[in-house]
Amino acid sequence: MSYIVPSEFATKMVDAGESKTYMSTRDTLIRSFMAGAILALAAAFAVTVAVQTGVFLIGALLFPVGFIMLYLMGFDLLTGVFMLTPLALLDKRPGVTVKAILRNWGWVFLGNFAGALTVAFLMAFIFTYGFNTEPGAIGQKLSSVGEARTLGYAEFGLAGWGTIFIRGMLCNWMVSMGVVGAMISTSVSGKFLAMWMPIMLFFFMGFEHSVVNMFLFPSAMLMGGGFSVADYFLWNEIPTVLGNLVGGLAFTGLTLYVTHVRTAPKRQVAPATMDNAAMSSSPA
Predict the structure, then answer these.
(1) Can you tell me the mean pLDDT for 53-68?
(2) For 58-73, b where at least 16 C-beta lie within 10 A, e where not — what string?
(3) What percent of the chain has pLDDT over 90?
(4) What is the distance between the alpha carbons of residues 199 and 12, in angstroms, rounded to a whole number?
(5) pLDDT > 60? residue 150
(6) Which of 5, 191, 207, 212 could serve as 202's disulfide partner, Cβ 3.0–4.6 Å?
(7) Which tens digits make up the pLDDT trace of 77-91?
(8) SS3 state of residue 3
(9) Cα 268 to Cα 272: distance, rounded to the nearest angstrom
(10) Cβ contacts of residue 274 below 8 Å, gap of 6+?
(11) What is the helix (H) or strand (E) element at residue 113, kind and residue range?
C-alpha cells in the first residue's frame, strides 16, 4: 500500500477540519445522518453475530466494516469532527472560528442521532414483528446492555460518571486513530487495514462511543429496557460525548498536530560536542 508520512497526513487532518467548518448545513446533515445510520447497522450486526455465535470477539472483529464503509463514503461522525475541526482553529485557517466549530458539532450531533435513531426503530420493529412479540435473544441483549450502561453506572454515583467519561476518552483515542488511518494511505486496502485495528480494539474493550450509544440505548428502550431517557442522557450520553471530545483531541489530534505540523526547532549540537564526537569516531 502507498504510505503517506505523518508530516503530510497531519496537514491533511487540518485541511479536513477546515473543510468541515465550511460545509453547508444540508450536506452536514446528510453526511452525518448516513454516518449514524451505517454505524448503527454495524453495531446491530456485531451484536447479532456475538449473540448467535456466543463469541463476542467475532462481533468485535466484524464491527469495523461499518466504520470503514462510512469513511470511504465521506460521511461524518461526531467523534471525528471533535478531533479534526479544532486543528483548523489552532492553525488559524481563515474563517474558522469557535462559533463555526460549535455549529458543525451541533449539526453533526443531530444528524448522527437522527440516523442512529432511525435504525434503532427499524431494527426494533424487525426484532418484535412490529412490536407485537418479545424481541428475542438479540433484543434482550440490547436491553440488558442499555440497563447495565446507565443504571449500572448510576449505582456508583460520581465514580460511575467518571468511569463513563474515561471510557469515552479511550474510545475516541482509538476511533480518531481510525479516522487518521483513512488518511495515511492512498489505496483502499491500505485505508481498510489502518482503520480496522483501532476500531476493533475500542469495540471489544467496551469503551463508550457516543454515536454507537445513540443506537444501543434507544433500541433498548424500544424493546423494554428498564431505564428512562433522562437515565440515558445523564448516565451515558453526556459523559460519553465529553469523554469522546477530550480523548480524540488530546490523545490524537493535538499530539499529531504539535509534533508534525508545529514541529519544535531541532536541537543544536555545540561545536565542542561535535569535535569530541568526531575525535571519538576517528580511527586510532
Answers:
(1) 97
(2) ebbbbbbbbbbbbbee
(3) 86
(4) 21
(5) yes
(6) 207
(7) 999 999 999 999 999
(8) strand
(9) 12
(10) none
(11) helix 98-127
Q: How far apart are CA 101 and CA 252, in angstroms?
A: 18
d(CA 272, CA 178): 46
pLDDT at 276: 59
Biggest CA–CA distance in the chain, Å, is 90
- DSSP label at 185? B
Residue 132 is classified by DSSP as T
Output b/e per residue, 20-54; b: 16+ Cβ within 10 A: bbebeeeebbebbbbbbbbbbbbbbbbbbbbbeee
The beta strands (E) that lie in the chain are given as: none
The Cα–Cα gap between 178 and 166 comes to 19
Nearest 5°: phi and psi at 185?
Answer: -140, 155
66: nearest Cα among 209, 217, 238 = 209
Residue carrying C-alpha cell 453526511? 31
In whole angstroms, give the CA distance from residue 78 to residue 71: 12
Question: For residue 64, which of 174, 210, 208, 219 has the smallest C-alpha distance?
Answer: 174
